Automatic annotation (TrEMBL), chain A:
Main location: nucleus
Subcellular location(s) of the protein: Nucleus
Keywords attached to this entry: Cell cycle, DNA replication, DNA-binding, Nucleus
Chain's gene name: Chtf8
Protein name per UniProt: CTF8 protein
UniProt source species: Pluvianellus socialis
From TrEMBL, chain B:
Key words of the record: DNA replication
Name assigned to this protein: Sister chromatid cohesion protein DCC1
Listed GO biological process terms: DNA replication; maintenance of mitotic sister chromatid cohesion
InterPro entries xrefs: Dcc1
Domain of life: Eukaryota
Family under the similarity heading: Belongs to the DCC1 family.
Gene name, Swiss-Prot/TrEMBL: Dscc1
GO cellular component entries: chromatin; chromosome, centromeric region; Ctf18 RFC-like complex
Source species of the chain: Pluvianellus socialis
């Protein structure tokens, strides 16, 4: 596992943990699509608006941080044969945990400005 | 699609009936990155210390060939890797700021367009494990070094391994591998790590002990220089020195001369192995007599020196002893116990301990292993252990 280079230390990312699965709004791939808006209250409570739902969460400092590994495909052959390389791209020490049941936004159609 | 505008964000807030005054001014608009998909990125949960190591610039390595379970190695530790599933969805977001960071930062943010780099519903969990070092000895035994006169070495057989080779083949951290090389008395010859063939090793040891005897040196003060001078014509000086390092403790006196304090237990043990190697078993009292006669003058041969090397059968009449080396037994816990119970149905704790000690994980005791893998009973007033189930 090589450490990704880069000026200074490893990047710090954030984990967002949601209950259940995330499905694309229109039938199609998730890639490129919008998930939603993430706000914080002045008290620091994360609020995520996804589609017609509001999710309230909390900021959690992870006791056991995560490393994000990116697969780099087959490496050079050594005596052990070709092996996959993983690179540590970032560390995650914080997560936004959304465990509360989503509150539906009661409305007809979202207003467009 | 197009990036969201402030107006759109505000409209959404209004529809959601959230009061912007109760919120921090910054908002993250989260989009899935164009290449975001499960499988490209994965999460590895870090055990204490690993995070700090990564931040300090160390690398972690995943090791394992196709037929092996992958392990993760830091500079000095080895971990089993296991996938943990979660019923939740984990999204990883670069550049996402926490409320703390937003409040601390002087720059005022409005919209932060964040891309979700990847997502997953599982992650790798780590559990510290024993380094898998049995393979190290197996590799080095493919081509033991028989001495400079051996014709074998002159042919181009490539069962030879450099440090780099070993690092890529052994599921253990570098420090654990280097330490084990020292423990098994491996030496580097022409850049390759080699184990000495047993007879050659005994030949070298014999040269040294004969010299100690003929010079009447104290066993705790064997001079390096004289050894190399006297024996250098018989064997390569590196091999003489290697033997002294393997069977003695090096020290330097006030005058700067290098001496060795010979290791009585290790020498007696090697000689016992030499004697036991060539017989299925030995009559115990005969063996003890021959053994004591074979060890250097001034050394005492004792049965407790043979833990993990030989086993005494107290049930046979007369009592016998036979070679049983722990390093020849399986590395896996269950397989180790199976093979031990195949050799002997019931074991006392004293007898079995040397053969399972190396299985203990960090902070695990022999007692805990016995509770897990064996069943105890009492035989003639003595507590014995046998297999939990029939051995295949």
């Amino acid at each position: 596992l090589a450490r990704s280079g880069g000026a200074g230390g490893l990047a710090q990312w954030v984990l967002v943990e949601l209950q259940g699965e995330v499905e694309p709004r229109q039938s199609g791939e998730l890639a490129g699509s919008l998930l939603g808006d993430l706000h914080y209250t002045r008290e620091g409570v994360p609020v995520l608006i996804v589609g017609h739902h509001i999710l309230y969460g909390k900021v959690v400092q992870l006791e056991k941080p995560f490393a994000v590994l990116v697969k780099r495909g087959a490496g050079e052959s050594g005596p052990a044969g070709p092996h996959t390389h993983y690179t540590v791209t970032a560390l995650i020490k914080t997560k936004l945990l959304f465990k509360t049941r989503p509150k539906p936004i009661i409305t007809n159609v979202p207003k467009k400005a | 699609g197009a990036m969201r505008s402030r107006a759109e964000v505000d409209a959404t807030l209004q529809t959601a009936k959230l009061n912007p005054a109760e919120l921090l001014p910054a908002v993250h608009c989260l989009n899935f990155a164009p290449q975001a998909g499960p499988g490209e990125c994965c999460l590895l949960q870090l055990e204490p210390g690993l995070c700090a190591e990564l931040e300090a610039g160390s690398s972690l390595v995943i090791r394992g060939e196709k037929d092996e379970q992958a392990v993760l190695c830091s500079k000095d530790k080895t971990y089993d890797m296991k996938i943990a599933d979660t019923s939740n969805m984990l999204l990883f977001i670069p550049g996402c700021k926490t409320p703390e960071q937003l409040n601390a930062d002087q720059a005022s943010y409005d919209i932060i367009h964040s891309q979700i780099a990847g997502f997953s519903n599982n992650y790798w969990e780590l559990r510290r494990c024993r380094p898998k070092l049995k393979k190290l000895r197996k590799l080095l035994m493919e081509d033991p070094y028989e001495g400079p006169d051996s014709r074998k070495d002159q042919t181009l057989t490539f069962s030879k391994y450099t440090t780099e080779d070993l690092l890529s083949l052994i599921q253990a951290s570098e420090e654990e591998i280097l330490h084990q090389l020292q423990v098994i008395d491996a030496c580097k010859i022409e850049g390759y790590w080699r184990i000495l063939e047993f007879d050659y090793e005994m030949k070298l040891l014999n040269h040294v002990t004969q010299l100690i005897d003929s010079e009447s040196w104290s066993l705790s003060k064997v001079p390096l220089r004289t050894c190399l001078e006297e024996l250098g014509s018989l064997e390569p000086t590196e091999m003489i020195e290697h033997t002294l390092l393997s069977y003695g403790r090096k020290y330097v006196d006030d005058a700067g001369e290098v001496y060795f304090e010979m290791n009585e237990d290790k020498i007696c043990r090697a000689i016992a192995e030499m004697l036991l190697k060539n017989a299925v078993k030995f009559n115990l009292s005969e063996f003890q007599e021959v053994w004591q006669q074979s060890v250097p003058e001034g050394m005492t041969a004792r049965l407790d020196q043979l833990k993990g090397l030989a086993l005494v059968d107290k049930t046979s009449r007369p009592e016998t002893i036979f070679l049983l080396k722990v390093e020849d037994l399986p590395e896996d816990n269950q397989e180790r116990f199976n093979s031990l119970f195949r050799i002997r149905e019931k074991w006392t704790e004293v007898d079995i301990t040397p053969y399972i000690q190396d299985l203990c994980a960090e902070k695990q005791t022999v007692g805990a292993l016995l509770t897990k893998y064996a069943r105890s009973s009492t035989q003639n007033g003595v507590k014995v252990y046998n297999s939990r189930r029939p051995i295949p």
